[in-house]
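Retro notes - structure team

What went well: the batch runner handled both jobs without manual restarts.
What didn't: labels got mixed up in the shared folder, which is why I'm recording both outputs here explicitly, each with its sequence directly above its C-alpha cells.

Job 1
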Amino acid sequence: MSQDPQQLPRYSGIATFMRCPYQPSLKNVDIALIGVPFDGGVTNRTGTRHGPREIRNQSSLMRSVNQSTGVAPFELCRVADVGDALPESPFELERSHRSIQDFFEQIVQAGILPVSAGGDHSISLPILRALAKDSPLALVHFDAHCDTGGNYLGSKFHHGSPFKVAVEEGLIDPKKTIQIGIRGSVNHQDIWKFSHDSGMRVIYMDEFYELGVKGIIEEVHRIIGDSPTYVTFDVDGLDPAFASGTGTPEVGGFTTHEAMQMIRGLKGAHVVGADVVEVAPPFDPSGATALVGATMMFELLCIATESLHQRAPLGD
C-alpha cells in the first residue's frame, strides 16, 4: 500500500494526472493538478469536456524526471491531483465560469499553484479571475488564435474572447502579454485588432520561423520580465499533424518538439499558474492528442515546480 504509484505498472490503479495521489482535501499540497471538464464556450466543434479524463489516462506515460532539463517535479514539490473544477450548471456559461472561479479561489486561498487541463479556452478567464485579484498578471499564450475577439452570437464569453475580457477586467497586463503561433484564415482582417491596439506582442507563424525557438524565448522573457506570469497552452497552436483532436485546428503550426523547447525556455520566469486546453478526444480516438496534452502539462508542471521551489523551497 505504501508503494510509489509512479513505480507501479502504468496500466494499473485509478487514473490520476501523472499517477499523482488523488487529494481533494488540499492538505499538504504545493501544486494542484486540476481538470476543468467544460466546453460550453465552444463556437463550433465540441468535445473538450472529455479532455481532462483522457489526459489523465495518457498521463500515465509521464515519468518522474524530465530527461532534458533534469527537473524532478515530484521531488521538488508536493504535487497532487485534486480533482475537477466541475461547473454546477454546465448549460449556463456564466454560472459555469463562476463555479470554476469559486473552485480556483479555494486553491489560491490554500496557497497552492494550479496546473490545469481543460476544457475549452474560455476556462482560462475564471481561473485568471481567481489568480489575479490583487494585480494583473503577465501572460504567455501559445495558440493559433489570439482569443481576443468580441461578441459572438450575442455573448462576449466564449473560447475566442477570454483574453480581451481579461484585459477589460484588469486580470492581465496586455503590455506583458505575448501570443505565439497565430495563423489561419479569418473572416475579418482586423479580427485581432484588440491584441494589437492594447499592446500585446503577437507573433504570427511567419515571424515564428524568422525568429526561431531561441528568438521566441528571448522575446518571451523580454515581455514578461520577472512579473508573476500565467502560461496557457492551446493545443491548436500545434500543427494538426501533431494534435488533430481539437476543435479549431489550423494547418501550419509549430511542432511538439518546438513547443516543449519553448516551455522549457520559460525557466526563470515567475510562474503562478498554467493550463493546457482544447484537447477534444472525440476527434482523435487514437489518444495521440491527449498524450500531447499530457506531455505539455508535464512540461508546464516542471517549469511551475522549478519556479515555485526557487522562490520558496517546499515539501518539508
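Job 2
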Amino acid sequence: MDVTERLNEVLSRIRNAELYAGRAERSAALVAVSKTFDADAIRPVIAAGQRIFGENRVQEAQSKWPELKSETPGLELHLIGPLQSNKAADAVALFDVIETIDREKIARAVAEEMRKQQRILRLYVQVNTGLEPQKAGITPAETEAFVALCRDTIGIEIEGLMCIPPAEENPGPHFALLSKLAARCSLGRLSMGMSGDFETAIEFGATSVRVGSAIFGTR
C-alpha cells in the first residue's frame, strides 16, 4: 500500500472504532505523526486531505513546516514531544497546539511567548500515567492542582490531557485514568492512542489519536 492507502485505512479504522464505541462519527480526530519524515514524504498525505499533523521536535519541525504551511493554508500542527523552555518562542511561533505542558516553568514560558507574539495556542497537559522516570509528564496525583495553577495563576487555558502509556503494559487502564482525570479537571479533550492502540483509546474517549507508522511506514 502507498501512503494514501494507509491513511485511508487508518481513517476507516477510526470510524469503525467510533461506531463500535457508540460515538458520533468524526468525534476522534487523526493527528498524523510526521516526525523524521521530510516535506516530500508529507505532501502526499496533505494532498489526500489530511490537515492535522504532529511533530516531536521543534527544530525538526522548523526545517519543513513553514514551507508546507505556506503551500497549504489551514494545516494544524501539534507539538507532541517534550518542550524545553529555551524553545518556547520558536514553538509558539510555529505550532498551533502544544500537547506537552508538564511543569510550571514551561507553562510560564509558553504563556509569556503567547503574550509577546499575540498568538493563542491550544494547550494540553501531558500526564505520566505510568510514573515512568524516563518519560515526561506530570504525575496523575498532581494533575488537578497543576491544571488549576495554569488556569488561575499563570492565566492560560488548558484544553485537554495527553498521555503515552508504558509500551509493555495494557493501555486500557492508562486511558481510563486519563479520562477520569480530565473529568475531574472539567476538560473535554483527550489526546491518547498511537498506531498500536488507537482503537482502544477511542473506546475510552480519545478526542484525538496520534498515528505515525501506520500511515508513513517504519522510520
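One thing worth noting from job 2: The longest strand covers residues 122-127.
We'll revisit the folder naming next retro.
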